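Figure 3 (text version): structure tokens given as input.
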């Protein structure tokens, strides 16, 4: 790809997996995001938090081109969708996976058929190979083989999340977007899902962008946290940085009545994430 189309590098020569600069999103006169900047580094799990209704899911959808933005630049895997060819856009799309809130599985399709939707859209594979790959994804997310031919209405909430994650992983993406992945799960199911995300990050080398309200997820699986407030990223850093923050909503969130004193996860952060700056730039 043309070098002029690639994202600028950081001072130490690294290119973020996702780079957002000066993004503005509005619905009529209602400005939701204004001059927002954000970087995500290869191999990290970034937890994206903020008060309800501030635009966390809006930003994710704008990054994925599901919502229009009025201005700003977004580079995914070093490239700007605005400047690449249609063929390059398709190639980039295959490197992204998305788990929408509540799973968003197609109710008329089985788990097998849901997982094969992106395969049919982007790949030209024989049915036997798609079936084989589907069973590998089902095993990868911890579902039993018997789940393949069940419909979403026959699944528990936790199984729906895992099936939706299997679909998100269908094309072996580099970057996965998770929108409230543990919402609606009981504490045990949520903890198991967090462990699954950490395992997939470590074994597959995934980079994960996770919109969440779940404090347990922030403590147990996230390498860094970005906080949306006043229409932009107002702080970004490790859980220790967030706990040390002295002002406003961040302090209330991490030190309020529902705050937790949970030990930091014991798996090491990836090299890029460990070197990432504690600011949103």
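Below: residues designed for each position.
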């Amino acid at each position: 790809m043309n070098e002029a189309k690639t994202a600028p590098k950081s001072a130490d020569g690294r290119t973020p997996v996702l780079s957002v600069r000066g993004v503005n999103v509005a619905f009529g006169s209602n400005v939701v995001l204004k001059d927002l900047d954000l970087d995500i580094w290869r191999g990290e799990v970034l937890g994206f938090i903020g008060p309800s209704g501030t635009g966390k899911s809006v930003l994710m959808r704008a990054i994925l081109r599901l919502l229009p933005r009025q201005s700003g630049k977004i580079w995914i895997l070093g490239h700007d969708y605005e400047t690449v060819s249609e063929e390059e856009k398709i190639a980039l799309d295959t490197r992204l996976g998305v788990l929408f809130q509540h799973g968003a599985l197609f109710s008329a399709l089985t788990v097998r058929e849901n997982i094969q939707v992106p395969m049919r859209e982007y790949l030209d594979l024989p049915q036997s190979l798609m079936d084989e790959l589907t069973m590998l994804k089902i095993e990868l997310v911890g579902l039993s083989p018997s789940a393949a031919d069940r419909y979403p209405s026959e699944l528990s909430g936790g199984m729906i999340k895992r099936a939706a994650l299997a679909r998100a992983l269908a094309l072996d993406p580099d970057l996965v977007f998770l929108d409230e992945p543990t919402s609606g799960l009981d504490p045990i199911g949520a903890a198991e899902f967090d462990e699954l995300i950490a395992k997939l990050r470590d074994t597959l080398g995934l980079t994960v962008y996770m919109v969440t309200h779940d404090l347990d997820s922030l403590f147990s699986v996230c390498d860094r946290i970005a906080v949306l407030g006043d229409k932009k990223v107002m702080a970004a850093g490790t859980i220790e940085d967030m706990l040390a923050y002295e002002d406003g909503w961040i302090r209330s969130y991490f030190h309020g009545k529902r705050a937790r004193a949970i030990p930091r996860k014991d798996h090491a952060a990836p090299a890029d994430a460990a070197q990432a700056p504690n600011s949103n730039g």
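The radius of gyration is 19 Å.
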